[in-house]
Amino acid sequence: MPHAPPHKLGYDDYARLPDDGKRYELLDGEVFVTPAPNTAHQRAARRIFRHLDAYFADRAEIFWAPTDVILGPHDVLQPDLVVVDDPTSVSERGIERAPLLVVEILSPSTQRRDRTLKLRRYAALGVGHVWLVDYEIPAIECVRPRGGDAERIVHLEGRDTVVEHPDFPGLSFRLGTIQEP
């Protein structure tokens, strides 16, 4: 007798997950659970938010986790920061189309998944840009997903290094600012 393929979970399944303080994500129909981020992680996200908010001003809206980014029937992700330049993609449920930019702050418990599975899903589902940020080093890797692949645009390390992204002229900040109090 043939083995039945596993059932991929969808948004309705995701919406029924418990509200227990953990972050749930649905990647290609599979549920992943992550504990709440630590305070250093949250500080880094807040500092990056400030840079993005100042740069995008009235051109885009920035959201932070937990915000559902619904990229398809089997993909609901919660990046640390999301830059949305199309206001029609914002609904009561969350962000309902591929955003301009997502920022993933790397943690020991999520780093591998962020660099592999999540990056592949972002690329396959049309996200414009992905930033992978390690606040401990500090380091940033800016990736432009294209048709299932991910092209590295910028990879920088060091507190005194200035981040400048070729696709966002004028967006510039010293990498060490994500560590400062």
What is the H/E string? HEEHEEEEEHEEEEE
Query: How many strands?
Result: 12
- Structural class assignment: alpha+beta
**What is the overall silhouette?**
globular
User: Between the first and last Cα atoms, what is the distance in angstroms?
Assistant: 61 Å
Task: Count helical runs.
Answer: 3
Helix content: 10-25%
Low-confidence stretches: none
Please state the average pLDDT score.
92
- What about the largest sheet? 6 strands, mixed
Query: Main sheet: which strands, in order across?
Result: 3-6-7-8-9-10
* Rg, Å, rounded: 16 Å
Q: If you had to describe this structure to a student in words, what would you say it looks like?
A:
With 181 residues, the protein is an alpha+beta fold. It is built from three helices and twelve strands. The strands form four sheets. The protein has a six-stranded mixed beta sheet, with helices on both faces. A hairpin with a 2-residue loop joins strand 1 and strand 2. It is globular, with a radius of gyration of 16 Å. The N and C termini lie far apart (61 Å).
